[in-house]
Amino acid sequence: MEKRLLLSMVLCLLILLVYQSYVEKQNKRWKAARQETVEESEPATPRDTGPSEPEGTAVSQGTEEGLKGEREPGAEAPLDEPCEEVVVDTPLYRAVFCSRNGRPMSWMLKKYQDHKACRCPIPIPGLQGQEPEQGADATGLGWVERIHARRPEEWPLGLEISTGKGRRIPVRETLAPDRPGLDLRDGQGPATITFTGRDARGRSVERIYTFSPDTYLVGLEVEIGGLKPALQQAGLGVKLSERIAKKSKGRYTFTGFMGFIDGRLEKEKKLKEGEPKYYDGDVAWEGFSDKYFLTGLLPVDNPISSVKLEQLPVVDEHSAGLLVSRLIYNIQEHLQGDRARCSYSLYIGPKDMDVLKHTGHFLEKSIDLGWFGFIAKPLLVILKFFYKYTHNYGIAIIILTVLIKVLFHPLTKKQYESMRHMQKIQPKMKEIREKYKDDKERMNKEVMDLYRTHKVNPLGGCWPMMLQIPVFFALYRALLSSIELRHAPFAFWIQDLSAKDPCYITPIIMGATMFLQQKMTPSAGDPNQQKMMMFMPLIFMFMFMNFPSGLVLYWLVNNVLTIGQQLISQKRQQ
C-alpha cells in the first residue's frame, strides 16, 4: 500500500470518528429539546411538587385529595427485614427471590463465566495477566451476576403508585410464596411461583412468575386489590435499577439505560440528578444493557405505557451513580372491579443475536452496531456459520478475513495498478515541482496536464481503500461487541478472543507486518512524509496493545494477505 494512501485511510477514519461524535452531540441536543417541549406542554404545577409525569399517568385534583394519608409515618414496612431464599434453578440461570416481597435478589447466568483468567505463559516481568472483573459473585460458581443491588431497595421489580405530579408511593408488600422453589434443570415444562399477601395499607397483592427451562424470558403478573377510586386513576410503576461503574465508560462499549420505544432505540449513560427523562408511546421493552448482557422489562397487552428514567446520587468513587427506570401503566386500563391485574415479561440474558431473535419483541435491537450495522450483522452471521464447522472462533475470523480479501481483490488490484502508474510519473512530477516551485498555479496546471497525458487518476489508489473502510469499521464493531467471542479460546496463549493478548505478541507481530508492507511499497512521496509514515506501524502497534485479541488477529491476517498480494503483484511486473 502506498504510504500516502495509508495516511489517507487513517485520516478518513479520523473524519468518521469526528463526524460520529458530532452526530451524537446533535442527537443529544435534539433529545434535550424534545424533552423540554414535552415538559412545557404539561400543565403547570407548583414548584415544590416536582416534575410532572408523562401523559397517561396524570391524575385529577380529586385523586390528589383521595391520596392524602397514603404516606403517613410508619405506613411503609422496612425492606431490610430478613427473608428466606426462594430459588429457581433452570438450565439457563439460577434466580433467588426474597420470600417476603417476591423480588429477585440474585440472577446468575449459568452459560457464561464472570471472569476468565488470561495469563501469559511466558515468564515476562510485569505480565501477570488480567485482574478479575469487579462484581464477581461470591458463590464460587463463577457465573455472571445480573443484579448489582447493594441495598434491598435496589432489588428489581419494586412497585410504586405514580400520582402524575412527580409523587411516588412505594407499595411495600408482605408476601409469602406458594412453594419453596423450583427446579427445572431436568427440562420439564413451564412452572409458576405465586407470592401472595398484603401491603402496609391492607390491599391484597399477588405476584405470579412463570419460568421455562429453554428461554431467558420470564412471565410476570401483578395484581393489586382493594384499590380506592383515587388510586384507580393513578399509574402503577415497576422499577428496574442499575449501578453504572465508572470503568464501564467507553466509546463503543455501551453500559446504561436502553429501550426500544416508538420504533427507535433510546440510550442513556448518565443523567443529571433531579432532571428525569420521560419516554411515551409504543414501548417494546426498556431496561439496562452492557456490552454483552441485557436486563429488560417488556409490556404485555398494555394499551398505554410510559417510562420514567432518573439518576440517583453517586455514593462512592467507583460508581457513576444509580439509574432507575419505571415502566408505568395506567391502572384504569387494567381494572376489574377494584382490582388491577398487569402483565409483563422479564428478560435477563445474553445479547446473542440468535437468542434475542428467537425471543422476539425486538430485543435484537439492543445489539447496536453503529452506522454500518447493516454490514456488521451479515458478517456476524457468516462468522457463526464458519464456527459451526471449525468450532474455533479464531479460525473462523481467519477464514472470514480471507473471504473479505478475495471479495475485495478486484479493488485491490486496481489500487496497485494506480500506484504503479503514479510511481512511473514521479520523476516528471518532481521536475515540474522544481521548475514551477515559485508559481503554484502553473505547477498545478502542469501536474494536471501530466495526469491527463498519462491517463492517471491521482485518486485511483484511494477510492478502492475508501470503499473497504465501511467493511473494516463494521467488522471492527461486530468483533468488539460480539458475545460469541467472549471467553472464546483460539490457540496457545490466546484463550479469550474478547480480551487483549496477555503476552502482547500478536500486536508486535502486527506492527512488524505493517513495517514490512511499507518497506515493500516503493517510495512515492516527499522525504518528510516518508519519515512520518515510518512511525505508523509503531503507533498502530501500541494502539492495538489493549484491543481484543480477536480484532488484532483480523488485522494481522489482513496484513499477511496484503503482503502476499504485493509479492504476487511485484513478480508479475518483473
Characterization of the model:
- The protein is of the alpha+beta class.
- The protein has 2 domains: about 220 residues, no CATH class; about 210 residues, Beta-galactosidase, Chain A, domain 5, CATH 2.70.98.
- Helices cover about 35% and strands about 25% of the residues.
- The protein is built from 14 helices and 21 strands.
- Helix 5 packs across helix 6 and helix 6 runs parallel beside helix 14.
- About 10% of the residues have low confidence.
Count of folded domains: 2
**Outline, from the CA principal axes?**
elongated
Based on CA atoms alone, the radius of gyration comes out at: 30 Å
Q: Provide the residue-averaged pLDDT.
A: 77
- State the distance separating the first and last CA atoms: 18 Å
Give the total of beta strands.
21
Helical residues, percent: 25-40%
Number of helices: 14
> Which structural class fits the helix and strand makeup?
alpha+beta
Portion in beta strands: 15-25%
Largest sheet: 10 strands, antiparallel
Low-pLDDT parts are 33-62, 71-77, 128-140
Task: Describe the structure concisely.
With 574 residues, the protein is an alpha+beta fold. It is built from 14 helices and 21 strands.
SSE order and pairing:
Layout: H1 3-41, H2 61-66, E1 85-89, E2 93-98, E3 104-113, E4 143-145, E5 159-162, E6 168-170, E7 173-177, E8 181-183, E9 191-199, E10 204-211, E11 217-224, H3 229-232, E12 235-245, E13 256-261, E14 264-268, E15 277-281, E16 283-289, E17 293-300, E18 305-312, E19 319-330, E20 335-336, E21 339-350, H4 353-359, H5 373-390, H6 393-407, H7 409-424, H8 426-435, H9 440-454, H10 463-481, H11 505-520, H12 527-533, H13 536-543, H14 549-573
Parallel strand pairs: 1-8
Antiparallel strand pairs: 1-2, 2-3, 3-4, 5-6, 5-12, 7-9, 9-10, 10-11, 11-21, 12-19, 13-14, 13-16, 15-18, 16-17, 17-21, 18-19, 20-21
Helix pairs in contact: 5-6, 5-10, 6-14, 8-9, 11-13, 11-14
